[in-house]
Design brief:
Length: 318
């Protein structure tokens, strides 16, 4: 498939499913042997700068959607590099990968926070909600803490982030709770699954909570498939742009080699001409110094004697 067709396919996927596809830019540090070298990790300041740059460029009212993925991420890279306390040598590929990680983590955290706000009683403080959402995130990520709270603070009030956080992208996680001690009615997903496995009795309607859990589970499977498609497409974009950058570096290296070859050729020709002129000069000097002046007129004799004196002075002959 042509490299630019892959970019067009990614844009088509974004329009069809409402999924934010992330792009990047050409300049990637690729060696002559195409070996990747891991750079230093992003700091919190750089993460915040990247979020601000992404929002500023993606929400540009002048250019809007009339910009390609490559141009979008090139402008994001320039905006990121213009901010203070950031590494200006960050490549577009690294920014794209970092944004993908931030977006995934913050999206998941927002989903957990939304679940907490829906089920918490009125009067629950903001700190308690945040703590519970972080706890859910840590459980889902196998005891990894939520590291992008400052990024979430930047993104949460943005219209662009509201577009990215469509209902289909918000993670749905079922937590296990204890049974109601007063009624003995199970309230967890585990208990609901147990009910699903029991034979249904004719004339008895299934509780609405189980139906909602089954529908939520079905939507989560669909969302996982869409996310996998998005990740695969994004990986293709990274490979394409990395290849384009690699070929650009190879062309620059070839141009530098050609310039070096031309300079060496000019130097060799100059040296050749200098030796040629020196041989001709010695030949001419030899003719003048060996000339028989017995048959010359006084004027001719005086001329050649003067030339001989000049040759002696120039060559150091005594």
């Amino acid at each position: 498939m042509d490299e630019y067709e892959i970019l067009e396919d990614s844009m088509s996927l974004e329009q069809t499913h409402g999924v934010e596809i992330i792009s990047q830019n050409f300049p990637v540090a690729v060696g002559s042997q195409k070996q990747s070298i891991r750079g230093k990790g992003f700091t919190m300041v750089e993460d915040e700068a990247l979020c601000r740059a992404y929002l500023a460029i993606s929400q540009d009212s002048i250019i809007g959607t009339n910009q390609t993925m490559v141009n979008l991420w090139e402008r994001i890279r320039l905006c990121f590099s213009s901010q203070a306390d950031v590494d200006c040598n960050r490549t577009t590929v690294s920014l794209m990968k970092r944004w993908s990680k931030i977006q995934k983590a913050v999206s998941k955290f927002c989903g957990f926070l939304a679940q907490v706000e829906r089920r918490q009683k009125s009067g629950t403080g903001e700190k308690e909600k945040m703590a519970e959402a972080k706890r859910m995130f840590s459980i889902d990520e196998r005891n990894k803490s939520f590291m992008f709270e400052s990024c979430w603070e930047i993104l949460r009030h943005s219209c662009k982030w509201d577009e990215i956080m469509t209902p289909s992208q918000k993670p749905t996680v079922q937590t296990t709770t204890s049974s109601n001690p007063s009624t003995g009615t199970p309230t967890s997903l585990e208990s609901e699954l147990d009910l699903d496995q029991q034979p249904s009795r004719e004339g008895v309607n299934r509780p609405s909570g189980i139906k909602a859990a089954l529908e939520s589970r079905r939507k989560k499977v669909i969302d996982d498939v869409k996310f996998d498609q998005m990740a695969a497409n994004q990986s293709q974009i990274i490979n394409v742009l990395t290849g384009i950058s690699s070929r650009g570096i190879e062309r620059e290296q070839q141009k530098a080699a050609d310039r070096q070859k031309k300079a060496e050729d000019r130097e060799a020709r100059r040296h050749y001409l200098a030796e040629k002129n020196e041989r001709e000069q010695r030949k001419e000097d030899h003719i003048i110094m060996s000339m028989d002046m017995s048959n010359l007129t006084p004027m001719q004799r005086a001329y050649y004697e003067q030339r001989q004196q000049q040759i002696i002075a120039r060559t150091g002959m005594l």
